[in-house]
Amino acid sequence: MIARILQQSADEPNEGEIDEQREFEVAFRHVRRSAFLLARHLGRRTDEAMDVVQEAGLRAWRYRVSRTGDFRPWFLAIVYRLSRSPVPDWVPLPRAWDRPGPAAVASAMDPELVDAMRELPARQRAALWLRYCDDLSISDVARIIGCSEPAAKQLLLRGRDALRLRLNSKENSR
Amino acid sequence: MTRMPSLDEIEARLRSLGADAIVTEEDERAIVHLGVIRLPAVRLVPSRAGLRHRPGGRRIGRDQIRKRLFGRVVLILLTLAMLLVLGGMVVAAEAFMATSQPPQQISEKEAVADAMRQLPNDGAGYTVGATQLEASGSPFDFTGPNGLAFGKDKAKECLIIPPLPPLPFLPCRDYPVWVVALSSQNCDVIIAINGFTGRFGGAGALSRAGAQATPGPSDSCGISAGGGESTAPGWWQPAWN
Q1: Cα separation of B180 and B140, whole Å?
Q2: Across-strand partners of B200?
Q3: CB distance B10–A164 less than 8 Å?
Q4: Which ipTM was obtained for this model?
Q5: Interface of chain B against chain A, CB under 8 Å?
Q6: Whole-model pTM?
Q7: For B183-197, how does the pLDDT look when each residue is reduced to its tens digit (9 = 90+)?
Q8: Which of A1, A16, B136, B175 has the most neighbouring CB atoms within 10 Å?
Q9: Does B37 sit within 8 Å of A50, measured CB to CB?
Q10: Is A63–B7 a contact, with Cβ atoms under 8 angstroms apart?
């Protein structure tokens, strides 16, 4: 009898685990769009971005006990790291292996701006998108990118300045 | 010339862009597919940082570090090996070119200029007494106009691939020798010059105070072996044996 109870507890998740799984799935559903678009902004193709988000979901589930703070920036930090690591860890290539962002679609509101963003370094592009398009706070941006808040502010300032110069040079070249 | 947009304008444009500026239909379909995630029944594992603080996890962390180090060492070794092979191929090609081209003998004028370079002040104050070409590189004895005698053994040089030492299977060749007799107020000298490369090949000197004729590098009369800049390629080096 005791053996049967132990067997049952090892194989079947208890109610607490089921609740935790549901909570995780709900949190994942809320953040998946942002995560997917972050991967896309970091230069991943659609299928690659899907893989990145799924892998991030599995990793987040596996390491969920180590989470501190909100789910959203924590999960986006995992997506950011995965999207920025296009090569295996043991290959000695720079981690910031930059690739251009996605092209603007025809229906976009400001294709010039998206075009200019594509030319920015991936770190700046991600910071601008997270802060201004995805409405995250500067502390969340810093946490996702893995830098201090002043560094994140500086990154955003430099990103906006670079965008301004690019837009101006494009307008002048017409 | 248009006005440059301000940083605030850029911020406003970014905010109005919204999150969906790049979303295509394909992206939308992908996002919908992402709604279904199958979470495996895995044991809870803390983060890597957490693993390092636990006795059980320390082993995993070290394994990963070891694996990465091993991978990096293998890649560095492979890169070094490739660079060595490429460098060897380049050196071998250059050596092959050096051996395949027929050597050109230098003229008497060039030989005299090369001989002058072995003397102090590029031979200022010296006049050329006599020159002689020993074309076969065989042993010979030369006597200068002032009676100074100079003997030369068989002249041979071998192919050297730096930084390797002389290798027995690489080819050797005889080279012609230009012998130049020069004299000044205080000295009579005889200098042997390699007829292919223009390098110093031995010398003898006779000072007015007393006679001494010695083959090979000599301090007499200020002769400095290998003086001046040699423009000859360094593939062929004299073999003194």
Answers
A1: 14
A2: B193
A3: yes
A4: 0.72
A5: 1-2, 4-7, 10-11, 13-24, 26-27, 30-31, 33-35, 37, 39-42, 44-47, 49-50, 67-68, 70-72, 75-76
A6: 0.48
A7: 888 888 888 888 888
A8: B175
A9: no
A10: no
- Closest residue in B to A17 (Cα) is B41
Residues of B in contact with A66 (CB under 8 A): 46-47, 49-50
What are the residue ranges in chain B where pLDDT is below 70?
Answer: 1-2, 19-22, 40-62, 137, 208-220, 225-234, 239-241
Which region among A15-19, A42-46, A70-74, B79-83 has the lowest average model confidence (pLDDT)?
Answer: A15-19
Please give the Cα distance from B20 to A107 (Å, whole number). 10
Residues 6+ apart with CB under 8 A from A37: A129, A134, B19, B20, B22, B23, B27
> Cβ A66–B46 below 8 Å, yes or no?
yes
Tokens matching residue A72? 């959203």
Whether B204 and B148 have beta carbons less than 8 Å apart is answered as: yes
Nearest CA in chain A to B51: A66
